[in-house]
Specification:
By secondary structure, the chain is mainly beta. Helices cover 3% and strands 30% of the residues. The protein has one helix and six strands. The chain has one helix at 93-96, and strands at residues 10-11, 25-26, 42-48, 51-60, 72-78, 81-88. The strands form two sheets. The protein has a four-stranded antiparallel sheet, with no helix packed on it. The protein is globular, with a radius of gyration of 14 Å.
Length: 122
């Protein structure tokens, strides 16, 4: 799966030695909503064994994070159908907002959802 700047997320099949060149699934949401979207989405996968896969995408919400501190958004997609967004951190901002975009995204454990935050100082 990839999440390039100014593009939708795309999932490709792997046959054991190569990836297909045509995505089998794409998201409907382009990241960011405005701005240039640098540096693209940081992606992670979680699952319950080999079922219930979730693609986590830590993205710029607006602006250019390569040169500025900008708002971020964490999105969760059904890994088998990226057209299904399961959750995002702006659905209930009071509870879930991740604040500014972080250029690093740790792997997720089976029991928690977390993301690093980057803050501009000065």
């Amino acid at each position: 799966m990839c999440g390039a700047k100014n593009d939708v997320a795309k999932a490709f099949k792997f046959n054991g030695s190569t990836f297909t060149t045509t995505p089998f699934s794409t998201s409907s949401v382009k990241s960011p909503t405005t701005g240039c979207g640098m540096p693209g989405a940081m992606l992670s996968i979680s699952a319950n064994g080999n079922t219930n896969g979730i693609l986590w995408a830590n993205c710029v919400f607006t602006g250019d994070a390569l040169h500025n501190t900008v708002p971020g958004i964490l999105r969760a997609y059904d890994a088998n159908n990226l057209g299904t967004e399961l959750w995002n951190s702006r659905m209930n901002q009071t509870r879930d907002d991740i604040g500014n975009f972080a250029n690093t995204f740790p792997l997720l454990s089976s029991t928690e959802r977390s993301t690093w935050r980057r803050f501009r100082i000065g």
